[in-house]
Amino acid sequence: MNIFILGLAIFFVPHLYSSFRDRSDGKDLRRKIGYNTYMGIYSVITLIGLILMIKGFGEMRPSQVLYQAPVWGIHLNLILSFLALIFFIAANFPTGHIKKTLKHPMLVGVKLWAVGHLFSNGELNSVMLFGAFLAYAVIDRIAVKRRGDRGPVAITPHAKWDIMAVTMGVFITLIFVYNVHPKWIGVPVLP
Hints:
mainly alpha, 8 helices
């Protein structure tokens, strides 16, 4: 469990720092050291945290069951994870209606993904993992609102980016459900 908790801490420290860092002129670390250097350091630290998190999560299996997930939780998780994936993709595309409406689709996606997994997994390691992601997404959304980041407000959305996000979301979901999740995670998505 120690490796898992260490991984969570290492993963979320740069994320939380980024949420609350001082963005004023002369104080913004990202501007001081340069975007590429900042993102390089950020990525390396996050990757180390992710590796430790995955290793620690696996070492906690089987984990204590905190609650019995409802049978319908699997189906809800599939729907919410599918939507989350579309939102993750939309966040990385130019502005479409999804991005314009949600303002911060990545954070909405993280919340949906985490909530869905909490409805389908009641084991201690799962609750810690998905609970941490949910807590981070809520905290980051509050930070985004406080700093006045209203998302892509003045940009005219183009539906082609929504169509591409949904199309890619369907394609990637099918690959994930039938191949990646059972093989890499070790848990079949469909009962």
